[in-house]
Amino acid sequence: MAMASRDRALDGLRGLAALAVAGGHSILTFTGLGIWALTYAQFGDQPFPVVAARLGYLVAPSDAAVMLFFVLSGHVLWAMFDRRYRGIESFPLCIAERLWRLLPTSIAAGLLFGAAVHINYIAPMDTPELWRTMFILSRDTNGVLWSLQVEIVASVLLFGVWAATRGRALPAFLLAVPSIFVFLRTGSEVALFLPAFLLGALIREVPERIARSLLLPLAGVPILVASSVFWGHGWEARIFEMSGAFLIVAWARAVQPRWLLSRPVQFLGLVSYPFYLVHGLGIAFAFRNMPWVPVDQTANRVATLFILSTLSALLLAWIIHRLVERPAMHLRLADLVKPREALAG
C-alpha cells in the first residue's frame, strides 16, 4: 500500500505485510471464505485438514497484514502532515498529493487487469468497470481495492483531525471511541478502521525506552495474527489487531532491526504498493499454469500457487514501479503547481 515517508524498517515491514496478503489469498483460493471464517470454538466439529487449513492463515494472515498497512499509513501520514502542511488551508494540496501518490500506480495496475480480461485470465469486465478499477472507484474486479478506498477516505479524515488538534496525537486518538460507535450504528468500514490510523499517529508519542522493548513484538505479533482465530473477523478482533499492529510498528520504528533492512525485504517494501495491487493477477496466472501438481495434494498446490504467483506479481510490480510509480514519486505534484504558500517552512 502507498506511503509517504522513507523509513527503511517500516518499508521492510510493509513489504512483508504485502507478502502475507498474497500468501493469505493463495490459501483462500483453495479454502474459500468458509474455512477462513472459522474460530477456535468451532475447531472441535471440524476434521484435521480443515483445522490445519484455517491455521495456515496464521502463517499468512492477510487481514492482519492490511491492519498493519492502516497503522503504518496513520503513522507516516501524521508525520507528513507535520512536515509539509500548515493547517486546514493546506487541505486541497494534501488531497491532491495523496491522489497523485495513489492513482498513477492504480491506473497502471488497472490497465493490466484490462489486459488480463482480454486474454481470458480473469472474468470479463466492461469499459466503465475498467475505468472504475483504474481510479479505485470499484472493488468488484480487484478486491483488494477496498482497503485503498478506506485509506483514501481515512486520509482525508485524518488530515481534518490533525488540523483540528494542531498535530496533537493524544487528543486525536480520543476520537477512536466515537468512531467505533459510528461503525456499530452504521456499519461503515471507514469508521471501523479509522482508529487504526489514529493509533498510527500516536506511535511517535511512545517513549523510546518502551518502544525498544522486546516485549512489544512478543506481545504484538500473536495479538495481531491470532485475534481472528478466537474472535472471528468482527469488530472485537479488529480492535485487538489494531493494538498488535501498533506495538509492532512502534518497535520496528524504534529498533530498526537488521532483518527488516536486508535487501530482499527492502525490495519487497520498494514494490509493495504495485505488488499489492497486482498479486491477484499473479494468482490467476499461477492457477492456470500448475497442472503438474495433482489436484489431491492441496498443500503442494497452495505452496506452488504462492511461489508462482509471487514471482510473477513481483515482476509486474517491479515494472510498474520503474515505469510509473517511481517517476510519479520523483515528479511531485507540488513541483508542478508550486503552491509554496501551502507548504510548511
Q: Can you tell me about this structure?
A:
There is one protein chain. The chain has helices spanning 8-36, 48-59, 62-84, 91-118, 127-134, 145-165, 169-173, 176-186, 189-202, 208-211, 215-231, 235-255, 263-270, 272-288, 298-330, 333-337. The chain is mostly helical and 345 residues long. The chain has one domain (8-342). α1 packs antiparallel against α3 (62-84), α1 packs parallel to α14 (272-288) and α6 (145-165) crosses α9 (189-202). The two termini are 28 Å apart. The model is unreliable at 1-5 and 339-345 (pLDDT under 50).
Observed structural traits:
single chain; 74% helix; disordered N terminus; mainly alpha; disordered C terminus; 345 residues
